[in-house]
Amino acid sequence: MIRKILNLGYQLLEKNKKLKKLKPVLEAVDGFFFGTDKVTTFTPYILDYLDIKRFMATVILALLPSVLASIYFYGIRVILIILVSYIFGGLCEIAFAVIRKKEIEEGFLVTGLIFPLILPPTVPLWVVAVGIVFGVIFGKEVFGGTGRNIFNPALAGRVFITISFPKIMTVDWYQPLVSGWAGFNRFKPDTVTSATPLMLYKSDKILTSFKDLLLGLSPGCIGETFRLGIIIGGIFLVLTRVANWRIPLTYLISVFFLSYFGNLLFPEKFGPPIFQLLTGGLLFGAFFMATDPVTSPFTNSGKLIAGVLLGFLTVIIRTFSGYVEGVMFSILLMNAFTPLIDYLVVERRYKPNNKR
């Protein structure tokens, strides 16, 4: 039935030249239901265990615990935030595909879901729209689209609205709902708290319970609250080989050791290591954003180097800057250095022999 409808659509596009610009939209629907029709005609035939659709589906599946937990803790308004992200970001993707006369890339399926999960639950819907549009256009499309972008588009949008609307993005935070059906039968929480665990520690040196952090009983961004779900989803990504284990492992280890020795020497400045690991967007960033195959190093040694540098930057920014969270800035900075890291690794490994 779907195939017949699609065939009728193709026939209509062939007959009406004005509608041909909409061909990328039809091809995107075709690819979603039936996969690609591109095949190799000559040997050697290469079979990869992972295509882009399976990649996107696996990441979305890994994000489900965080999505469901966010609705539970912050109400069904979260669904509205996700829909706004998909609608406005999707319209940008379609517009650029039509202008370039190219297929619509499936990469936005993940970007459109990750972006709302790294926002505070109090964020106005118009800010969601502004952020995702900026992220898609200036974080990806200006570079040529999916696979050519230097920066993670979700993080590019998040940093833009954080700098543009600092009060909206940093002041008021909902206290998570935790009883009964909680957010599944509420539009949003009524209670507002003014500080996240990182803010409390930086201002008053108050440590939030590790149990509360793991189970989502403390305020934070929409998708970062339920850390246990993030860990489960992250391990799933590593086991399915969608995410390379080198970046999250070295990232988390470097944060642990740097904060351990920092706390040992300067306890008034550096937070304890376990607290550092469980607060902010560290776990979410380590598993779901730092491992982005487009913006992270492609060499294994480069991944290890990136993980160590990410940990260093995160702890330094958290401790000494005016921002309590350093994950998003660290990942964007490392995105910029990724080509250089890979270049140096390759040059070192395959150093040309000048001997005659």
Main features:
mainly alpha; 2 domains; two-stranded antiparallel ribbon; 2 strands
- Which structural category do the helix and sheet elements fall into? mainly alpha
Q: Strand tally, please? A: 2
Q: What is the residue-averaged pLDDT?
A: 85
Count of spatially separate domains: 2
Inertia-based shape: globular
Helix count, per DSSP? 16
Radius of gyration: 22 Å
Helicity, in percent?
A: 55-70%
Strand line-up of the largest beta sheet = 1-2
Protein architecture, described:
There is one protein chain. The protein is mostly helical and 356 residues long. The protein folds into two domains: 2-34; 52-337, no CATH class. The chain is 62% helix and 1% strand. It has helices spanning 2-15, 23-34, 52-74, 77-100, 108-117, 125-139, 153-164, 166-170, 197-204, 210-215, 227-239, 246-265, 273-278, 282-289, 300-320, 327-349; strands at 173-174, 192-193. Strands 1-2 form a two-stranded antiparallel ribbon. Helix 6 (125-139) packs across helix 7, helix 7 runs antiparallel to helix 16 (327-349) and helix 15 packs antiparallel against helix 16 (327-349). The model is unreliable at 43-47 (pLDDT under 50).
